[in-house]
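Apologies for my clumsy wording, but could you write out the amino acids of a protein and the tokens describing how it folds?
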Amino acid sequence: MKKIWILSCLFMVFFSGLSIQAADYATNALRFPYGKNYLDLRNIQRTEPRDIDMFTHIKIKKNVSYTLVMDLDYIGVDNFSQDEYPFLTHCEKENVNCQTKDISVDLTNERWYYTFISTVETLLFRNIPAMATTGYNIMLYEGTYAQFTGFEYYISNAPIYYHGVYLVDIDHPVPEATIRQSLSISDPKGGSLKMDFLGGDYDDSNPELGEFFLQYRASDQMTNTSYFEMMVKVIDRTKPIMTGLDTYTIEHGTPLVMADMLSQITVSDNVTALTNEDIDVVSDEYTPNMNQAGTYNIVLSVMDGSFNETTKTIQVRVVDTKPPVITGPDVIYTYLSDGARTLEQITSLYRAMDAHDGDITYKLNIFLADYDGTLIKNHTIYVRCKDAAGNETLRTVHLHVIDDTAPVFDTADYVLDIDTYESMTREEVIEWLTNQMAQTGASPRNLQILLDETEHLQSKREKAYIYYSYEIDGITYQSRLAVDYVSESEPIPWIYVSFGVIGIAGVGFIMYRRLKKA
């Protein structure tokens, strides 16, 4: 809380009667006095050694109680002790309705007094039994003798009024006595002074905002008086308080409207009753961009009844945390006869959509890993896509390569013409077959002739077969040797090797080599 700041003695001083002219008791007699005392000493003359008279009548108020009072110094000691029943002459004007009136004696306080109720608006005293050689204490005032509070002298000139402003923070009320201490008085002619507090409407025990007044009076020994009217301005210098979140993080697609944010803010003030309905939106970057990812500022303001303003900036972050959605198959089937799938073919099967960025299929990334379209297996490939906010989706796809090629039986048929075959013994045929297979890298053992169709043919034909068996790595295989029967007109062919398909369970050596490679 800031310290109370006081503008004390900032006076708008209005002086009246600073150019004091020579006293004119006749003129003064035509008006009411500036102070309490109606008797201008310049309007009194001593006519007899022990009597005084007024030069001219003075203006008073009709039907008002008045009291004339004198002290011992003004009366004179001799008069006071000798005259037990003093009296004076009371006239409306000179020689008009003059009456003799008794003066009351106050022995305790050594004063004489005369009280009356006026019936007219003018007054003139004569034959007042006073020496008037020392002292100035004679006074005519409104009220009874019981209301006498002390002598006050006649004020010749209009009092001077001073004005000032004293600022008070409502949170730190200032007592009236403290405000009074901010004033100082001095007398240009010297002498003792006093300052009196005359009252006002400022209440330091229960201050309220507004302007209030306190009045002070300064007077010297001769009752020359000045007044000071202090305006006490009670102000509120404490700003309202706004409490609530300073930042919001909002998921894109689920916006928070301004009314919802304002409902979560609490406002309070030390004086003014405020609610969040008193909040003003100074600027708002968020509302027009609530469907766009980014960071936006909202500036709020609230003002109390004293125009103290508090502002609050709220930062709203609209974030995109949802990854793109990739649509497309989880499993892809392909066949050997189709050939290997290309990257473009696989990519065309998928589409990527993002809640914030829209269609981002162009950002798809396909990782084929070790995919080989010629291998019959379940391959694993990866489909990946990342949006502008860095949210990524990864899908694992199984790509099956299926064998759709019918089986092929391959074997090696060795062929001899009939003449060559008949010229060879059984052992030579076995040796010849062994050598033929050795040329392919095989090492057959226990090669045996199982069946020789040439021994059982009833008629000639183009081809006969010799079936044989052999072992390789402990496994027995079967194959056959073709024997060609050529016509007499055809030249005898030389030995050659050809391939054919056999329909029996045995497979040839070439199948064996393929199995070995596999």
